[in-house]
């Protein structure tokens, strides 16, 4: 069996298939893991100790990631609680606030407690939660966008710009100017599923102890053949399997293959793709996010009370930016303060704002850009593939690690793999409070 792509989908497919088959894992990049990207950095100045810092996949939770949790348990990968909170900083009106940090975070900006438009925003958050739950209960119209939904319900422009767009743009790493084009039914279902349509009752968010690379290493160490830095150029279907041609023009036969890449990449390596493959995979658009790992804390809110794990920055009060600008405080998310005297930040977009002297690494990450057209194509994905070829990727779902893992299992099972048996207990650090 061949698995092409070593992100969460490919790794999960390979893990399941390897129970009963000999698996060869191909990865175009020199590093396996995709968005599971850990940087081993100096923990303290003048010390040889290192700390694992993540710049892609960072958190999961104990409620809506069952497939990933089972994978971690089988691998013996340890996890720990994360600090999950989000702030919004507007350079236009000066507003800074943070959710999940109590009144100190909500009213971090002087005068916010007596600001009519900000107090209205807080009231509209509760109204949005209530209306969203009601809409889900009776069914949201197909094809309706978030912008249409908010407009019809009469939400203020201030609420849309300072709460709704930051939330969508930060969660999906999408450009703010397309956030309102998201299919509202799909978006509301995600928010409800993750406990984000209520002030209380959110799941417990967790992070992989030592960095997400720990689970990548655990899988690849147990596979018979792992080939990083070996791009696949074509996959050709034959009567009894597939032929895989790599970048060095080596051609190998396999009984079957999982293509676990982004949709456009899958389409580019398919030899003689079908009309449905062209139509469906070609409709699944992605956005490219320029990402910087650094130590420049000026990208965080100026007021410490407003600083959170996710920090969204707006250049003005209007929704006009074509690039998301959000900075993740990794010390909070990964609980790094006990291990390092440095503060690590990952910023998506706005790389020119980061002090060049504090840049550690730059990356490009692609994320699904959801739209009614994307959703329509997504609903046809189940028609693709056969006993020789299966497709996997987080684009089969909401675009997150759990979606990638679920699609990886489904692709493996389509090719005859099975993932049955008891689920082992999840490993947690000693003394960790759950």
TrEMBL record:
<dbReference type="Pfam" id="PF01593">
    <property type="entry name" value="Amino_oxidase"/>
</dbReference>
<feature type="domain" description="Amine oxidase">
    <location>
        <begin position="8"/>
        <end position="281"/>
    </location>
</feature>
<dbReference type="InterPro" id="IPR036188">
    <property type="entry name" value="FAD/NAD-bd_sf"/>
</dbReference>
<dbReference type="InterPro" id="IPR050464">
    <property type="entry name" value="Zeta_carotene_desat/Oxidored"/>
</dbReference>
<dbReference type="GO" id="GO:0016491">
    <property type="term" value="F:oxidoreductase activity"/>
</dbReference>
<dbReference type="InterPro" id="IPR002937">
    <property type="entry name" value="Amino_oxidase"/>
</dbReference>
<protein>
    <submittedName>
        <fullName>FAD-dependent oxidoreductase</fullName>
    </submittedName>
</protein>
